[in-house]
Write a structure and sequence with these properties.
With about 150 residues, this protein is of the alpha+beta class. The chain has one helix and ten strands. The longest helix is centred in the first third of the chain and has 27 residues. The radius of gyration is 24 Å and the shape is globular.
Length: about 150
């Protein structure tokens, strides 16, 4: 009986050591993850009904934690006035992104931000956007669940 118990304990210790070694190895091995533009996977979330597409590059903006997404807006499209409960951090990747502030879409208030621009829209600030001449790709990032509250329908 003692021999069986000792054998079981030895097996448990050996398996624990192997599991620990595998866990440790997995945490110390780092590898670069990169995406070319062709590898970005665009999709249309159910809440987009205006031709926009989204791509999750890192994390999941619908679950929180650190995340990075891209949004593609087709030429001539606009996003009506809305707010976000968190700061919105925007980098324009491609095209010119037009942004205006206010509770109603007003094309006279739009200001163009060309590719390479970075914009911070503070939490709760009503704003609207458009892609006037050509499609636009913007990159959004954050660390909590991304939510949009529309003021216009």
């Amino acid at each position: 009986m003692k021999k069986i118990l000792l054998a079981v304990i030895a097996i448990v210790i050996a398996l624990s050591a192997i599991t620990l070694a595998m866990t440790w190895a997995g945490k110390t091995q780092k590898e670069v993850v990169g995406l070319t533009p062709e590898q970005v996977r665009w999709f249309t979330p159910p809440y987009y009904n205006d031709g926009r597409q989204r791509a999750q590059l890192f994390g999941d903006s619908s679950k929180g934690g650190a995340w990075v997404d891209r949004v593609k807006i087709p030429s001539g499209k606009r996003v009506l006035a809305h707010t976000h409960p968190q700061d919105e951090l925007v980098t324009v990747i491609e095209g010119t992104w037009y942004l205006g502030t206010g509770e109603r879409f007003d094309s006279a208030k739009l200001k163009g931000y060309p590719a390479g621009s970075f914009i911070v829209i503070p939490a709760g600030v009503p704003h609207f956007v458009a892609a006037k001449e050509g499609s636009v790709i913007v990159q959004l990032s954050g660390s909590e669940v991304f939510r949009t509250d529309y003021l216009e329908r």
